[in-house]
Batch of 3 targets.
Target 1
Amino acid sequence: MHAVIAASEEKMQKTVAVLTEGFASLRTGRASASLFDKIRVDYYGDKSPLNQVANISVPEARLIVIQPWDKAMISEIEKAIRSSELSLNPSNDGKVIRIAIPSLTEERRKEVVKVAKNQAEQSRVAVRNVRRDGNEELKALLKKGDLTEDEERDNAEELQKLTDSYIAKIGKVLDEKEKEILAV
């Protein structure tokens, strides 16, 4: 396998990983600790990830319990959750924060699916851009005389097969997320 192909595959893998990570923060109506991955809390002047200042657990399908390691952090955590784009309403009893995850309306489910499809399309475009860049590198190597025409053509075909497989992976990840979002 040529270095151009290997570098392109690595970039395509990262694209799928970023998409999967992005999907984890999409609200599906089911409680998940990953909803809070992007939330940062003001922890004595530093913006810290929520999971580094509290324990996040999911005791039921529609309930999340956040137990701060420092009780003084409860109001900061609540403020961070309320100001996030998650549209959640936390409540606390002085020791833990409880968040009931409301079920999504049909309209909201369709909006979330649209967001997921948009993210998947951006990932497909990114994979195609990696293929284009790889093909340009191969052509440059051909011009320099580092590759023969046959090697360039074979590597371009390999790059296309790689692109097709990663586009299919993106489709599979999207299908799984769509099923999760639309499941009632």
Target 2
Amino acid sequence: MSIRPVTIYGEPVLHTRAAEVTEFNDELRTLVQDMYDTMDAANGVGLAAPQIGVGLRIFTFEFAHEDEAPTRGVVINPRLTLSKISGATPDVDEDVEGCLSAPALNFPLKRAEFARVEGFDVEGNPISFEATGWFARIMQHEYDHLDGYLYVDKLNDKWARRWKKAQKSLEWGLPGLTWMPGTDEDPFGH
């Protein structure tokens, strides 16, 4: 299998709703393995297919948690049911997220504390589990990618202004920008 380049904010596939997976075959299994390899090389806790330039509704994850759910897996054609998201101002220590497609940046964002996740595994078998806390945050973050959103698109006004300044200074927002996990310097310093 192989590690693939990670797309950076501005690549059209990141800003477009991904298509449903309709065939569970060897090609899909290869794609999912490439996603695991890329996520691992990038030291990520999740990776959505659009982040490697593939407009399909798939994400992988790996995160140690206390929920009765897998700590590593793939969700294909996911559906999420969320608890209410607090209207409180995001905490700059507790609610900070980063994203492989907005490398080296971190901003606070409020998320739901609970998510029920349903979808399919790589063989087409139905899966369902619940996620809480940071695990729920990861599920929401990856799911957003499949609808064409990055977490930076959901920041409150204060943090959105800081994001826009960073985006401008980094000259992001144009197609064709990528970074290669395992080859390029780790943007998060892992």
Target 3
Amino acid sequence: MSFFIAPSPHHHQKRTTTTIMRLVLLAMVPGVLAQLYFFGWGIFWQLIIAGSTAVIAEMLCLSARNRSPVRGIQDYSALVTAALLAVSIPPLAPWWVIVIGTVFAIVVVKHLFGGIGHNIFNPAMAAYVLLLISFPVQMTSWLPPVTLAGDTTSFIESLRLIVFQFTSDGYSVNQVRAVATGQLLDAVVMATPLDQIKTDLAQGLTLSESLRNPIFGAFAGHGWLWVNVAYLFGGLVLLQQRVIQWQIPGALLGTLAVATIIGSIVAPDTLPGLNIHWFSGGTMLAAFFIATDPVSAATSNRGKLIYAALIGLLIYLIRSFGGYPDAIAFAVLLANLCVPVIDQYTRPQAYGDVRGGQ
């Protein structure tokens, strides 16, 4: 007997996992460069440490599972996880923070669930939540953008701060932050804009009073606006290359926009507007690079819409009424838990099935 593959209605996808992951890494470059420009060289070193740790952890896990470690790391999936985690943490966080997070993402979240294609949670976001809960001080200590502080830590000094937590002149990370913050007329801007709003509202200020802080600038936050625009550009490239589909970023951003508009109408003095929610945190990174993870996201087109809308709604609710300013990681993990149910009730009807689709 001879077997052949008919040309229709089958469609062969020539892109391998390696090609897709490589495109994702390339699409992240504009956002990473924007972070380097506005927040210094620490981002570069975090990427190097996270990438190295991910490769080592991946190879060890593959060896323990009797898989080829060299072939396993060639799909770039570990590097994508490392990159997403590295750009999510403060640039001068201690080296052991990113190492712990990366090892947890690769070993526990990915390989203990069966490796690539089997993890039920987004590895980078699971690791982020672990770090945020375990080391809240290190995970919330951001330097002000260079455009506000007027100075940045040098290439080598950034590495010294990450590894030793001291510069060559003996200044600690806290002292470096204090110097940078002191240049801003005593404004407390070591947090992200979303952190700043939540802190100000807790102290009894109105939203309009909080937005007068120099960290916000004229629109959504010095540095943060352009970082989000850069990740938006990279995300559009992924859409154009058909690496991702529009359903997840469209539904996430759309739901967040609708919830924000309603909230701004109901409580304009306490709930921020769309410019803050879209461009003052990691929203664009989440919409195009995190929520679109093909393994932990819903599979059908209708399921993707529901899954992403749930993430957008959870982001808004946690940011507005919860204890964490940038709620992306929690929202993604909660939505990951719902994926089996979403897939169960949104899977398309099989061709020729006359039973109604279930």
